[in-house]
Amino acid sequence: MARFVRDTIAVGDDRRLLDAILDGAASLIIVLNAEGRLVRWNRACESLLGYKAEEVEAPGALLDLIPAQERGLAYAARRAVMAGESPVRAEFHLRKRGGDLRLIEWSGTALTGPDCRVTHIVATGTDVTDARLWDEERLETEERLRHIADHDALTGLFNRRRFEEEVERHVAHGRRYGMDGALLLIDLDDFKQVNDGYGHRAGDTVLIAVADVLDTRLRESDVLARFGGDEFAVLMPVGGETEAAELADLLAAAVQREVPTPAGSLRASVGFAVFGKSTTADKILSRADDAMYADKGTAPRQARHLRSVD
């Protein structure tokens, strides 16, 4: 009889020790039986979610804290643990008493009996809500910074640095798979009259209009950039001399016809160079630039080009 009393006291002490350990843990700890009923809900769960264990012990009460669209994640995790996987990781929200949702990262482990059957599931959780929000904000900030680094602030087009990267990428691809395409440079001949006569705000309006007109004339695969000041550039990755000449004439005509300015119609000089076998980014840019300035001296206006850079 005395031995039985001592064993009972020892078991009680062990249980109180286990309760103290669970309640002292910083992590959320949930213990379920094999049927999915709640056996233990530690103090960290109560503190975060605002519910005492007895409030979530009823069948289905715990699942009610999970948004309906995410309950499948909890079911799948429980099935995986019962099937012998351990640990099983899952991430889903729990609803606090006030209605707010907290994103919890769970790790589930099986406890087995003498017959090796799963008797309980112990799930430990960490509230990652704030960490995920910080990650999202960091990614959004990085994306904004990348956009600022790659784009012209006025027109939203690629800037010169990003455009030259695209040309380098195209050249590298061409060396491996065969070179194609052309590069066009566009300069607005009469733009200085707008800036000097009507101010930089009027000039900015004209540049935005030019960017829009050029963009609507290009294919999805073409790359358009504001090269700086009143210069624009186009990487035409597919096509040859005939297609480049047609595109150059099209862009020059569209600018003159469709971009209104307070100083009258706007003329554009367009030069292009076709990619060749030994083309480098610097060579193609230089040849297109030479062709564009040669175009400035022609009358009537005609897009000029230099043949493929070999």
Relevant terms:
single chain, 310 residues, Alpha-Beta Plaits, 2 domains, five-stranded antiparallel β-sheet, five-stranded mixed β-sheet, 24% strand, disordered C terminus
Question: What features would you describe in this structure?
Answer:
Residues 1-11 and 300-310 have low confidence and may be disordered. The relative contact order is 0.09. The protein has a five-stranded antiparallel sheet. Strands 7-8-6-9-10 form a five-stranded mixed sheet, with helices on both faces. With 310 residues, the protein is α+β, with helices and mostly antiparallel strands. Helix 7 (191-198) runs antiparallel to helix 8 (200-216). It contains ten helices and ten strands. The protein is elongated. The protein folds into two domains: 2-133, 2-Layer Sandwich (Beta-Lactamase); 151-309, Alpha-Beta Plaits, CATH 3.30.70.
Shape: elongated
Count of discrete alpha- or pi-helical segments spanning 4 or more residues: 10
In total, the number of strands is 10
> End-to-end distance, in Å?
103 Å
Strand line-up of the largest beta sheet? 2-1-5-4-3
CATH architecture designation of the largest domain: 2-Layer Sandwich
SSE string, helices as H and strands as E: HEEHHHEEEHHEHHEEHEHE
Q: For the report, how would you describe the main beta sheet?
A: 5 strands, antiparallel
In short:
By secondary structure, this protein is of the alpha+beta class.
Layout of strands and helices, then pairs:
Layout: H1 2-24, E1 28-33, E2 38-41, H2 43-49, H3 61-64, H4 71-82, E3 88-95, E4 101-112, E5 118-127, H5 129-150, H6 160-177, E6 182-188, H7 191-198, H8 200-216, E7 223-228, E8 231-236, H9 241-258, E9 268-275, H10 281-296, E10 304-309
Parallel strand pairs: 9-10
Antiparallel strand pairs: 1-2, 1-5, 3-4, 4-5, 6-8, 6-9, 7-8
